[in-house]
Amino acid sequence: MTEIRFRSTRDAKPAAGFGEALAQGLAPDGGLYVPVEWPRFAAGSWGPWGSLADTGAHLLAPFVAGDPRSPSLSAITAEAFDFPAPVVPLGAGGRLAVLELFHGLTAAEAYARLPRGRRESGRWVLVSTAHPAKFREIVEPLIGRGVPVPESLARLFSRPSACTEIEADLGSLRDALREDGIA
């Protein structure tokens, strides 16, 4: 399998391999890394592949090909997708369904579960999306039922909040964190 290269959304050159793009996060010019060329899957090659972790490993394999992490991909996806992800039918016809990925950990829970030494080493990546309970007025009508709010999220909802608008760049975030005494 050929190694997929990644380029910045702002500049087509230079391209990076998977490991380099993962380690850098953002491209040097501040753009997002995207594949130079997308892998192709034959129509008959689609699952079922078993678990969500197996599906993730199968779909991610072309992006990681040639990288030293490639042999560990199944273990990585097994750890990342270690939560239930039910497919819930929408409506009585059963022709449409939604894959509920919100049963996994919140970002705060995932961070708290990292072993202390790993947290302190700074050598970890946490990717998270918003929990649907944060958007109940939109999600609940779509799925036709209530969204359970995890205890950790309920605690966050009960805390006072504040908001400071900043420019959408890393320098502004660093400045805001310094002003608040965080960094």
Helix content: 25-40%
- Per DSSP E runs of 2 or more residues, the count of β-strands stands at 4
Give unreliable regions as ranges.
Answer: none
Spatial shape: globular
What does this protein look like?
The chain has 183 residues and is mostly helical. It is built from 8 helices and 4 strands; from the N terminus they run βαβααββααααα. The protein has helices spanning 18-24, 52-64, 73-80, 107-113, 116-121, 136-143, 151-158, 170-179, and strands at residues 6-8, 33-35, 87-90, 96-99. The protein has a two-stranded antiparallel sheet. Strand 3 (87-90) and strand 4 form a beta hairpin. Helix 2 (52-64) crosses helix 3 (73-80). It is globular, with a radius of gyration of 20 Å. The mean pLDDT is 78.
Brief descriptors of the model:
two-stranded antiparallel ribbon, single chain, threonine synthase, domain 1, chain A, 2 domains, globular, 183 residues
Summarize the structure.
By secondary structure, this protein is mainly alpha-helical. Helix content is 37%, strand content 8%.
Write the layout of secondary structure elements.
Blueprint: E1 6-8, H1 18-24, E2 33-35, H2 52-64, H3 73-80, E3 87-90, E4 96-99, H4 107-113, H5 116-121, H6 136-143, H7 151-158, H8 170-179
Antiparallel strand pairs: 1-2, 3-4
